[in-house]
Every structure is written in structure tokens, then in C-alpha cells.
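Support request from a user on the community tier.

User writes: "When I paste my C-alpha cells into the form, the page sometimes reloads and wipes my input. The last time it worked, I copied everything first. Here is what I submitted, just in case something in the input itself triggers the reload:"
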């Protein structure tokens, strides 16, 4: 018979006995003045070999921070986990890839067994839980990168440069987006109803919506505005924020420039979608290649209009519209080359047939 020793913490010991680094972090938190570890983690875990500590979920945090948890629950980040699972390619990729490439960011909206959503420690890293830390732009940089590089756009803007040179004077992420609900007028995909008065733009956006639904992002919750009125309300909210530093006329003019850039990016993206679909139809490319073209174009479209609204010339132009146009031209040239190659093969076959026929008719 094998006996397993269970060690519990005695009165002379504490959580710090086993969890020194965690205890050190917690000691730097303002919560250390009025909370014990057991207030959040329960009393079931009392040393090596004992029960696991109680799971800390947003419901735990709501005991003291109900207002902030409610604000978070009404925002976009709370839907992060559902957004990830809604994309078909997430379930098609190896778990080793998604565990490191998707989950670290999307777990901000993790759905717990108690049905609460979110991981507060995504921004308020445990166990210091610093509000000051979470409010800094650098805290956003881990996730807002890659094919939606909001942090880099901001850093490249005049706002970001001011922050680097003189941080007290510069607006940061939460200045414009709040700290918990982070909702913007255009939504993550830059799509909304209400463009029927511009047929070219409207038709382009219908193609983009269909494409993003086939890819998966448009299936995620709360990535598009449901009505023009909703968009307009959120736009006015953004105007109010901008006028804390700028004149109203300037704020409206700059945001309208962003709208105009989004229109041009949408039209270019629609042309790329048409070309990819044509190349797929005539069997120049397979479905996986078509998906890759969609994804590359979508990333550049994101950079173009998000770069415009973040006042980043690098992303509005170099990483955005220019890159989108170059992708379109590159795919067009590939299609033309395929047609020429195919025509060459056909002409070669016809030539061989004619030569063979001539030889047959003239043989002696």
C-alpha cells in the first residue's frame, strides 16, 4: 500500500511559504491592504496535495467591482472567445497553433462554468491588478497587433509620438475607447447598413460582407453595426471625445476623411474579391489559395481604414491601400500570365496536330 503525504499550511505559515513570487506581486497591490488570498481563492487549497484553489472569475471580481464588470460585459472584449470560436479556421488548425496564436488574446472573453465572461487579468495582470498598468497603451500592444495592428498605428501617429516625447500631453487608447466597453462607430469590420445612396460603395460592401461571412469574421458577434442610427450615435460619442482636444469642425472633417478612405479601400477589396472568384472559377487557383487572397486583402483593408482613423500614414498608405492595390495588381498579372501560358499550350497542340496532319498527307 502506498501512502500519500498531504501537507497543509500551519498557523505559523502562510500562502507565501509556497507562492513567494505571487505573494510579492500581491504585496504591491492596493488590495493587499484589505484582502487575503482566501477572499478570492477560497479555503479549499491549503498546501501541496490539497484541493485546487477556487476559480477566480469575473463574478468573483464583481463582488467589489460590479460596475466595472458590467461595463466590460457590455463591451466588445467580452465577446472575444465567441469571436474566436465563430471562425471556421480556428477549429481546423492544430491545437498547438491555436493555444499560442489565438487563445492568449481571445481569452479576454473566456466563458467560465459559472457563465461569466472575461479574464480581468488579461489587462490587470495578476496579482498586482494595477489599474494604472492596464490603462497604458503598452498593455494593449500584445493583442492589438498582427493583421489588426491598432497599437502600432497609434504609436506611428502624432498621438503616439507625443506620448513617447511627452506622455502627459498625449491621448492614449482609453482616452478615445474607454477602459472597458471599447466600442467604436464602425465596428471591427468597418461595416454598417445605410450606404444605399452610394451604389458603387454599397455593391462593394455586399461582396465584402459575403466574403467575410465565408471566412468567418462576419459570423462573430458585434463586429458590425446593426443600423445607421447605431453608427451615428457612436460617431457622435467619438466627436465628443475628439473635441476635448480639437475643434468640432476639425474632428468631423478628419473622421469624414477616414470614411472616404474606407470607401476607397472597400472598392479596391471588391475588385480583388471579383478577381479571386474568377481565378477560382476558371481553375487557376484552388479554394485554399482563394481564401489566402481574401485574407491578405482583408488585412490590408483593415490597415487602410484603421490606419486612417488612427491618423497613421504608414498604415493608411504603405500597409493599407498601397499594399491592397499591389495585391490586386499582382493577382491580376498572375491571371493574365496563366491565360498566356494556357494559350501557348493550346497553340502548341494545334501546331503539333497540323504538322502531323501535313506529314500524314504528304508521306511517300
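"...and here is what came back when it finally went through:"
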Amino acid at each position: 500500500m502506498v501512502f500519500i503525504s498531504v501537507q497543509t499550511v500551519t498557523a505559523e505559515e502562510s500562502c507565501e511559504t509556497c507562492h513567494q513570487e505571487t505573494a510579492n506581486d500581491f504585496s504591491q497591490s492596493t488590495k493587499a491592504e484589505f484582502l487575503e488570498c482566501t477572499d478570492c481563492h477560497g479555503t479549499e487549497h491549503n498546501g501541496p496535495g490539497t484541493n485546487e484553489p477556487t476559480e477566480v472569475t469575473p463574478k468573483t471580481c464583481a463582488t467589489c467591482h460590479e460596475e466595472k464588470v458590467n461595463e466590460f460585459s457590455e463591451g466588445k472584449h467580452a465577446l472575444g472567445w465567441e469571436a474566436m470560436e465563430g471562425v471556421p479556421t480556428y477549429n481546423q488548425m492544430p491545437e498547438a497553433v491555436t493555444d499560442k496564436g489565438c487563445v492568449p488574446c481571445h481569452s479576454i472573453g473566456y466563458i467560465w462554468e459559472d457563465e461569466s465572461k472575461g479574464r480581468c487579468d488579461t489587462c490587470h495582470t495578476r496579482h498586482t491588478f494595477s489599474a494604472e498598468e492596464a490603462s497604458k497603451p503598452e498593455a494593449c500592444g500584445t493583442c492589438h497587433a498582427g493583421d489588426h495592428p491598432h497599437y502600432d498605428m497609434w504609436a506611428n501617429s502624432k498621438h503616439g509620438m507625443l506620448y513617447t516625447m511627452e506622455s502627459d500631453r498625449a491621448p492614449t487608447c482609453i482616452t478615445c475607447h474607454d477602459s472597458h466597453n471599447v466600442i467604436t462607430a464602425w465596428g471591427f469590420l468597418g461595416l454598417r447598413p445605410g450606404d444605399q445612396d452610394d451604389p458603387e460603395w454599397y455593391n462593394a460592401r455586399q461582396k465584402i460582407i459575403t466574403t467575410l461571412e465565408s471566412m468567418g469574421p462576419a459570423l462573430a458577434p458585434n463586429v458590425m453595426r446593426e443600423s445607421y442610427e447605431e453608427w451615428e450615435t457612436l460617431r457622435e460619442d467619438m466627436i465628443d471625445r475628439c473635441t476635448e482636444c480639437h475643434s468640432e469642425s476639425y474632428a468631423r472633417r478628419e473622421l469624414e476623411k477616414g470614411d472616404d478612405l474606407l470607401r476607397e479601400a472597400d472598392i479596391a477589396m471588391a475588385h480583388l474579391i471579383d478577381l479571386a472568384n474568377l481565378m477560382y472559377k476558371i481553375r487557376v487557383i484552388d479554394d485554399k489559395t482563394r481564401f489566402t487572397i481574401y485574407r491578405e486583402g482583408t488585412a490590408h483593408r483593415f490597415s487602410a481604414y484603421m490606419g486612417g482613423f488612427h491618423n497613421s500614414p504608414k498604415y493608411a498608405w504603405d500597409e493599407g491601400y498601397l499594399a491592397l492595390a499591389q495585391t490586386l495588381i499582382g493577382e491580376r498579372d498572375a491571371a493574365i500570365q496563366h491565360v498566356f501560358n494556357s494559350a501557348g499550350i493550346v497553340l502548341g497542340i494545334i501546331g503539333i496536330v497540323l504538322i502531323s496532319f501535313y506529314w500524314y498527307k504528304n508521306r511517300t
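Agent notes: The reload is a front-end session timeout and is unrelated to the input. The first helix runs from residue 20 to 27. Confidence is low (pLDDT under 50) at residues 1-6. Escalated to web team.
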